[in-house]
Amino acid sequence: xxxxxxxxxxxxxxxxxxxxxxxxxxxxxxxxxxxxxxxxxxxxxxxxxxxxxxxxxxxxxxxxxxxxxxxxxxxxxxxxxxxxxxxxxxxxxxxxxxxxxxxxxxxxxxxxxxxxxxxxxxxxxxxxxxxxxxxxxxxxxxxxxxxxxxxxxxxxxxxxxxxxxxxxxxxxxxxxxxxxxxxxxxxxxxxxxxxxxxxxxxxxxxxxxxxxxxxxxx
Length: 218
Description:
single chain, alpha+beta, 9 helices, 4 strands, 55% helix, 11% strand
């Protein structure tokens, strides 16, 4: 089974759609196909760049695509419930236990509240997920109705995660329009995520750098 086959599975698409609908009802930013596809591609890029096997890259993409389905159950502990759901889905599809184990572990450890980068795939998923900050994740265009998460996401006009040629540093570079949200706003809600990103980078043998408006902050 491949990443492309996972993307086309009707049941998985339904779970992602309904999970995002639940988050929309709770006032969260977009967690639908744009988010999970972006996370999948970045997770794959990280492992591919670092020389992991094509199959490991493929599994990282699958983990990225499935990582937020637990929001269908509840936002609280969604990484754990998502891991259990992923186990059932992948087992039904005939994935071998060693591949299911890697994907489930990555999904179960991607949230900053409880997650730990226990292996390279989990580390890649963490970095991919936490780097997806962008304006079009905000659901409302009424700036007067923004909460702090809306302000921060809307203020980010560009975000890019890149590994240097020497494979020693992973940089998250962002351009922030401070008219909508300050750099301090970003740290107020994302500090735990940045700490987890630093630990994830270390698991991959990298240093993590956060650069906002050309200034290195981490």
